[in-house]
Design a protein that fits this description.
The complex is a heterodimer of chains A (about 220) and B (about 220). Chain A is α+β, with helices and mostly antiparallel strands and about 220 residues long. The longest helix of chain A has 26 residues. Chain B has two domains: about 70 residues, Glutaredoxin, CATH 3.40.30; about 130 residues, Glutathione S-transferase Yfyf (Class Pi), Chain A, domain 2 (Up-down Bundle). The chains are: A alpha+beta (about 220), B alpha+beta (about 220).
C-alpha cells in the first residue's frame, strides 16, 4: 500500500534540504508543500501548532518536526541505505557533531553575517575557530562517515551552499582552500554528488533574500 | 560485559541525574566522579574540549558528551533491559522532540528564574508554569510520558523536580499548587529507586544555586 508522505517546507530553508536529500537517498516519493512563513497554511498550523516552523514531514497524517529529528525518523522508518552509523558510539558522535553544527557553527557564522563592521573581527574569530573544529573531523575522509554520504553530510550540507552565498554578500571569504583544505574538498565532493546537486534553491534568489535579511538586522541593531 | 563505565558529573546537575537514572535502570556498574563546579578540572577539559561541561559518560575510555546523546547511547548499548525509547520510529521522534522541549523551555526558563531579577524573572516564572502545563497536557491520563512504562522523556524531565525548591525560593512562588498533575507524576517517578537514588537533595541544590549566583555575580 502506498503511504502518503508530505514535506512542508520553504524554498530557501537549509534545514528542509536535509530532508529532501534524505528522502532522495532513500528513494521515497513524497509531495512537497511550499510554505510562505508570513502566511502559513492551515495544514501547517494543524501539523505543527507549537511553532508553525518548517520543515515538517507528515507520513500517513502523522507529523514530525525539527530537521535532525526528522532525519533520524526517516532513517528508522526506511532502513535501506542507512544514514546513521550502526555502532552506538559512532552514532553518538554523529549526533554530537550535528548539534555542534547547528548550535555553535551555524550560530557563529550567522553572528558574523549580521555583525556591524566594528564587531566583525571578533565574530570572525569564533566562526573560524568552529570551522577549524569541523575541518579536523574531515581529515582522511571523503565524507563525514567515510566513502558515502550520510547523516552528518546532510546535517552540514548548508556549508556547501549557504556559506558561499553569505560570503558573497559579506565580500568575505571564510572557507578558503588554504585554511580549510579538507572542508573545501568535502564541499566539492558533496556538491558534485548526483543526489545532492539538483536540489539547491536558485542562487540569485537566495542572494537577494539574505541580502535583505542582513540589511534588516544591521538597521535594527542598536549601535553601541 | 559492561566494560569500564565512568560518569563525570556534578551532584546538583540535572543533566547528570538523567544519566545516573538511566544507568541505574539498566543495572550498569559505573564509577562516579564528581566535578567541583563551578571550578572545572583538567580531566573535564580533556574529556569534553568542545563544551567543557558535565556530564560526560566515558565508556571504555571513549567520552560521550551532551546528556540526551549519552542517554540514547546508554539505551542503545544496554538495550535489553528497561528500554527507555520506544521501538516505533514515530513515537521515538515524539520522545526526542519532548526531551528537546524540556531543554529549551524547562531548563532555560528555570535558569532565568534563579539568575534574573524584576520583569525578566517574572516573565520567566510565568512562562515556566506555562511550559509545565504544556507538559501536563502531553502527559494526559498516562502514568508516565512513556505511556505505561517509565521512559526517555520521564528520565529527561524528572531531574528538574529536584530544582523546584531552588526555583520556588529564588522566584518566591509556588509551583506545585499551579501544576498538581505534574507533581503527581513526579512523585510517581520518585517511587522508582533509580530516580530516588539519583536525584539530588533539593536543599543541596539550593545551596549550589547560591554558589552559582555568587560565582556569576547575581544578587
Amino acid at each position: 500500500m502506498a503511504e502518503e508522505v508530505k514535506l512542508f517546507r520553504t524554498w530557501s530553508s537549509p534545514y528542509a534540504l536535509r530532508i529532501v536529500w534524505a528522502l532522495k537517498l532513500k528513494g521515497i516519493e513524497y509531495e512537497t508543500i511550499f510554505e510562505d512563513l508570513t502566511n502559513k497554511s492551515p495544514s501547517l498550523l494543524q501539523y505543527n501548532p507549537t511553532h508553525g516552523k518548517v520543515p515538517v514531514l507528515v507520513r500517513d497524517g502523522k507529523p514530525v518536526c525539527e530537521s535532525l529529528v526528522i532525519l533520524e525518523y526517516v532513517d528508522e522508518t526506511w532502513k535501506h541505505n542507512p544514514l546513521l552509523p550502526q555502532d552506538p558510539y559512532e552514532k553518538s558522535m554523529a549526533r554530537f557533531w550535528a548539534n555542534f553544527g547547528d548550535d555553535k557553527l551555524m550560530k557563529s557564522i550567522w553572528q558574523l553575517f549580521i555583525a556591524h563592521e566594528k564587531d566583525q573581527d571578533v565574530a570572525a574569530v569564533a566562526a573560524l575557530e568552529n570551522l577549524k573544529i569541523v575541518e579536523e573531523q574531515l581529515k582522511g575522509k571523503k565524507f563525514f562517515h567515510g566513502e558515502t554520504i550520510g547523516y552528518l553530510d546532510l546535517a552540514f550540507g548548508w556549508i556547501a551552499n549557504l556559506v558561499s552565498i553569505l560570503e558573497e554578500i559579506m565580500s568575505l571569504k571564510l572557507v578558503d582552500g588554504e585554511r580549510f583544505p579538507h572542508l573545501s574538498s568535502w564541499i566539492q565532493h558533496f556538491i558534485d554528488a548526483p543526489v545532492i546537486r539538483d536540489c539547491w534553491p536558485p542562487r540569485d534568489k537566495m542572494i537577494i533574500k539574505f541580502q535583505v535579511m542582513r540589511e534588516n538586522y544591521l538597521a535594527a541593531a542598536t549601535p553601541k | 560485559m559492561d566494560g569500564e563505565v565512568i560518569l563525570l558529573d556534578a551532584y546538583a546537575s540535572m543533566f547528570g541525574m538523567r544519566l545516573r537514572i538511566a544507568l541505574a535502570e539498566k543495572g550498569v556498574k559505573y564509577e562516579y566522579r564528581e566535578e567541583n563546579l563551578p571550578k572545572k578540572s583538567p580531566f573535564l577539559f580533556q574529556m569534553n574540549p568542545i563544551h567543557k561541561k558535565v556530564p560526560v559518560l566515558i565508556h571504555n575510555g571513549k567520552p560521550i558528551c551532551e546528556s540526551l546523546i549519552a542517554l540514547q547511547y546508554i539505551d542503545e548499548v544496554w538495550h535489553d533491559k528497561n528500554p527507555l525509547l520506544p521501538s516505533d520510529p514515530y513515537k521515538r521522534a515524539q520522545a526526542r522532540l519532548w526531551a528537546d522541549f524540556v531543554d529549551q523551555k524547562v531548563h532555560i526558563l528555570g535558569r532565568k528564574i534563579w539568575s534574573a531579577k524584576g520583569e525578566e524573572q517574572e516573565a520567566a516564572k510565568k512562562e515556566f508554569i506555562e511550559a509545565l502545563k504544556v507538559l501536563e497536557g502531553e502527559l494526559g491520563e498516562k502514568p508516565y510520558f512513556g505511556g505505561e512504562e517509565f521512559g526517555y522523556v520521564d528520565v529527561a524531565l524528572i531531574p528538574f523536580y529536584s530544582w523546584f525548591h531552588a526555583y520556588e525560593t529564588c522566584g518566591n512562588f509556588k509551583i506545585g499548587t499551579q501544576c498538581p498533575k505534574f507533581v503527581a507524576w513526579a512523585k510517581r517517578c520518585m517511587q522508582r529507586e533509580s530516580v530516588s537514588k539519583s536525584l539530588a537533595d533539593p536543599e543541596k541544590v539550593y545551596d549550589f544555586v547560591l554558589i552559582l549566583k555568587k560565582h556569576f555575580g547575581v544578587e
